[in-house]
């Protein structure tokens, strides 16, 4: 389950921000998870709750926003939306796609005190 290591990395970013910005408590965390990131949102919630215990983010609400998968279709010369890696172009059926978005996990916002 790679969500555990991802949750640990998110916590490290939060703790670094807490030290830099001098806040003591995180109330909410907004994560953006791309459709192509290979991250299961419910597993991420479970792991986030586990790794944040007794930390600055203990009890923080985790808000997960999804981002669509996008790609550039070489034959169509157009951007398209895809649901998973390996999908065909929804316009022409080609598999010559270059992923352009939705493959990331981003910490978008923190609510702190």
Description:
The chain is of the alpha+beta class and 113 residues long. It has one domain (3-112): hypothetical protein PF0899 fold. The chain is built from two helices and six strands. It has helices at 3-21, 41-51, and strands at residues 26-34, 61-67, 69-73, 78-82, 97-101, 105-112. The strands form two sheets. It has a three-stranded mixed beta sheet with strand order 2-1-6, covered by helices on one side. A three-stranded antiparallel beta sheet has the order 4-3-5, with no helix packed on it. The chain is elongated. 22% of the residues are buried. The model has no long low-confidence stretch (mean pLDDT 97).
What is the radius of gyration computed over CA atoms, rounded to a whole number of angstroms?
A: 17 Å
Unreliable stretches, pLDDT < 50, 5 or more residues? none
User: What is the CATH class name?
Assistant: Alpha Beta
Percent strand equals: 25-35%
**Based on helices, strands and strand pairing, what is the structural class?**
alpha+beta
Q: How do the strands line up in the largest sheet? A: 2-1-6
Number of strands: 6
The number of distinct helices, counting runs of at least 4 residues, comes to: 2
What general outline do the C-alpha atoms trace? elongated
Any idea of the CATH topology?
hypothetical protein PF0899 fold
Percentage of residues assigned to helices: 25-40%
Order of helices and strands: HEHEEEEE
Separation, N- and C-terminal Cα atoms: 31 Å
- Tell me which CATH architecture applies here: 2-Layer Sandwich
| Largest sheet geometry | 3 strands, mixed
